[in-house]
Amino acid sequence: MDDISGELGISKKTLYQLISDKAGLVEMVFMNGFNDFKNEVMQLFEKKYDPVLELIRLNNLALEQLKEFGPAVEHDLRKYYNNLYEKIKKLHLELMQNCIYQNIELGKKTGIYRDNIDTSIITKLHLARIEQVPHTDIFTLEEYTSPDFAREVCRAHLKGLVSEKGQQLLEQHINELNDKNK
């Protein structure tokens, strides 16, 4: 708290008037980060992209957040502020679950995704994949935060969702991603 008040150019007493303790400060920082992420996601959905591009961009936002958060931050948050860790994780999962569910429903309605998909199962399966990758020794941090990894996971997921109409969009958007990563 000394360092923070010094950086802000305020007294420690003034800082404690704004924030009750270190735990309150940590919560404020992480909730602010979550709210920023949520706003980015909401802005993405407001742009009304086709479902394929929307899901690709949603995955990219989640990947960016994963890079920022990182395993060390997650470890420390879980160890020292477990209640906050669980709160943030729950909020993140709820947000992503709602977004993916809506994306699949829109894709089915527009004929871009197959209409025989069980939206609830596929939503949870996609979330499980995203959530478990950082917690396995199969991929390194560099691998699972790379654009190539994100592209391949997204392509594999979308290939199972798209109809013939959606296949054309998928290839178009994947080619755009390939061009950007060169």
Provide structural commentary.
The chain has a single domain, classed as Tetracycline Repressor, domain 2. It has nine helices and no strands. It has helices at residues 2-8, 12-18, 22-46, 51-80, 82-109, 119-132, 141-144, 147-159, 164-181. The mean pLDDT is 90.
Sum up the structure in keywords.
elongated, 80% helix, mainly alpha, Tetracycline Repressor, domain 2
Q: What is the straight-line distance between the termini?
A: 44 Å
Average residue pLDDT: 90
Number of helices: 9
Using DSSP, what is the number of strands?
0
Q: Report the CATH C-level class.
A: Mainly Alpha
- Rg calculated over all Cα atoms: 19 Å
- What is the share of helical residues? over 70%
Structural class: mainly alpha
Task: Outline the low-pLDDT stretches.
Answer: none
| Topology order in helix (H) and strand (E) letters | HHHHHHHHH
CATH architecture annotation: Orthogonal Bundle
* Beta-strand content estimate: under 5%
Largest beta-sheet details: none
Globally, the shape reads elongated
How many discrete structural domains? 1
CATH superfamily: Tetracycline Repressor, domain 2
User: Within the CATH hierarchy, at the fold level, what is the topology?
Assistant: Tetracycline Repressor, domain 2
